[in-house]
Give the backbone structure.
Amino acid sequence: MHVSSAWSRTILGLIVIIAGLQVLHLIMLSRLEGHQQQEVEIVNNVQSYQAEFEERPVITVESEFSDLLRMLQRGGVLDTSGQYRVVPALAAANGHATALDLTLVTQCSVQHLSKVARLAERWQGPLSVAVFAEEQDLGRVLWGIARLRVCLPAIRQHVAFHLVSPLGAAVHRAPILPPGADAGCHPDDTDHQQDKNYARSRVPYPVNLARNVARRAVQTEFVFVVDVDMLPSAKLREMFLAFAAHAKLFDKSQRDDKTVYVVPAFEAKEGTEAPSTKNQLLQMAKEGFIRPFYFELCWKCQMHTDYEAWQKESTKQHHLAPFFEVLWKDPWEPFFISRNSAPLYDERFKQYGFNRISQVCELHVAGFKFSVLDNAFLVHDGFKTAATFHNTKETEQELNRILFRQFKSELKDRYPESSRRCY
C-alpha cells in the first residue's frame, strides 16, 4: 500500500516536470520566433529605407542647372523701361526669413558672381542677389548659381537669386550650358579683381534696376544694400538685430521712423584679409593696409561720414549702437541700413555715376536723418584708384550728371512740402 502510494507520487512528479519542460520549450520557441520576426522587420525596414534613398533624387550641379533653366524659360516680367527682362526668385532660399530680420542686398554680373560665397559666409543670414546677364552669359550665370547652391549649403539656405537680362536675350535656345562647364566644387575662374560689373556690358548695366529687383524680393523689415565686392564686419547682422530689439525698432509705433543707420566704408589693400572687428580695422589702418572708401578717387563722396571722429574711438564693446548723427551734404553717398520702406533707387541711372548719390539725395529731401553706427563697418576688396575703372567711366558719369540735375528738379514736385534741397 505504501509502495503503491510512493510510486504514484513519483509518477505525478515526473508528469509535472515533463509538463514544465514543455511549457519552457514553448516559451523559448515563442521568443525565438519573436526575435526572428524582429530581425525580418529590421531587414525589411533597412531594405525599404535603402530603396527610398536610392529613389530619392540626388542634387547635382547638372540637375540644379536644369531646374534653373526651367525657371528661366517659364518667363519673367518687363521692367518699367521695357528694356530689361526680370526673373524674380530664379532660385529661392530654402530658409524662411521672418520680418524681424535684416537682409543683405546686392547685385552683380557673372564676373563677380563667385563673390557671393564670401558674403554668405560672413553674413550668416538672408541675402537677396540680383544677377545681370546678357545673352552670351546666361549659361555661365545659371551654371555659376547652380554650383554655389550645390557646393555651399549656406547659400542654398540663405541666398535668393534673381535675374535681370536685356529684353532681346534668348531664353529658349538650347543648349545653354557653357562649353567645358565644370561641375566640381572648387573656386570659380570667373572672378576678376579689376573687372567691374559694367566693364564688359554690350548694353548699359542697369545697376539701380538690379538693386531694386533684389530689394523688392525682401521680406524683412530692414535691408542693407552693399556692393558685391564688399564685406561687412563680423556679426554685424546679429549685433544690429540686438540693437533693434533693445531700441524697439520693430514695434509698430516705430515703423514710420525716418532714420537710416550709416555703416562706415573702408577699402583694403589688394590681397589683405578683411578685418572682423573695429579694433582690428584700426590697427590695419595704422599699418597702411586699410583706408576710408574712395579716399583717393572721390573723397568728397565719403568724407561727410566723419571718419576722423569714428576712428578716434577704439572700442571694447561687443554691441552696436548709434555713435553720432551727420547732416547730409552734397555729394555724400554713404552705405546704410534702412527699413525696406525707404525710397527705392531711380532705375534711369545705369552704368557709372550718381546711382547711389541720387537715392541718398532723395532720402534727405524726404526728411530722413543719418545716424552713424559705431562698431560696424564695410570693407571693399582692393584700393579704389583711377586705374581700376573702365575707360568709359567719365563719359557715363557726365551723362548721369545731366540726369541727376533733372532728378533733383523732379524731387521738388515729389516732396512739395519739404524745404530740403540737394545742393
User: Anything to note?
Assistant: Confidence is low (pLDDT under 50) at residues 38-54, 189-194. Residues 2-55 form the longest helix (54 residues).
